[in-house]
Amino acid sequence: MKKDHVSNAVIRRLPRYFRHLNDLHDAGVVRISSSALGKSLGATASQIRQDLSCFGEFGQQGYGYNVEALRDEIADIMGLNERHTAIVLGAGNLGRALIENFHFARSGFTLTAAFDVDPAIVGTTIGSVPVHHADTLEELLSRGPADVAVLTVPQRAAQVTADRVTKAGVRGIWNFTNIELTITEPGVIVEDVHFADSLLALSYMISDRDKGN
Questions:
Q1: 149 Cβ partners below 8 Å, 6+ apart?
Q2: Do residues 151 and 48 share a domain?
Q3: How many whole angstroms separate alpha carbon 91 and alpha carbon 89?
């Protein structure tokens, strides 16, 4: 049984477990021990077992884990089988890059539409995703709700756009705008993506190494 409270650290590790197990499955690996799994992930066997125990009992003593079964269990835990729907707000450079290159389906999402205000973009399709005018957002969501909005609009439009999509029933925001959003609708989850944070962390680690620390 799933524990009543699962730490954010454990939740953050689940996608990495899933990706690695998927790679192992694609490579033809049938079973793996917690020690081998931990070693390949740079973790301890104890951490692997403790993380998985938050969601139930997996594996067998003396056998380890069936790779395909564990991958599928983690996919189910993360909701990949629920087929969530997503829309993109802002079909400029970043929005287009995500639509064309990010595999939403592999993460359990169906990308249904994109929205923009640029006349050169509105009315086109990116991949197979139609781009609608942002003015039609509420109307289209009333006919086909979306679970998640991917926010790639300019910063000046970020908060207004977030307010619109959450009032229209969107339950989650994948926020690429580098703006800390204020969400007033209850139950809405925001996942912020700050590219600069990773680069600045890398800058620190390189500088720290060069100083001999």
A1: 86, 87, 88, 89, 161, 162, 165, 170, 172, 173, 174
A2: no
A3: 6
Q: Which two tokens stand for residue 126?
A: 């990116």
90 Cβ contact partners less than 8 Å away, ≥ 6 residues apart: 115, 116, 151, 152, 153, 154, 157, 161
Residue 191 domain-assigned?
yes
Domain count, the chain: 2
Token pair of 20, please?
């690695």
- Same domain? 42 vs 106: no
The pLDDT tens digits of the residues spanning 170-195 come to 999 999 999 999 999 999 999 999 88
CATH number assigned to the domain comprising residue 108: 3.40.50.720
Quick one: pLDDT at residue 173?
98
Task: Give the count of beta carbons closer than 10 Å to the beta carbon of residue 109.
Answer: 22
**Which pTM does this prediction carry?**
0.84
Distance CA 153, CA 150 (A): 9
- Domain of residue 163 covers 83-197
CA distance 115 to 137: 7
pLDDT digits (tens, 9 = 90+) for 77-133: 998 888 899 999 999 999 999 999 999 998 889 999 999 999 999 999 999 999 999
90 and 71 in a common domain:
no
Distant-in-sequence, close-in-space partners of 194: CB < 8 Å, separation ≥ 6: 178
Residue position matching structure tokens 């679970």: 147
Three-class SS of residue 84? strand
pLDDT of residue 160 exceeding 80, the answer is yes
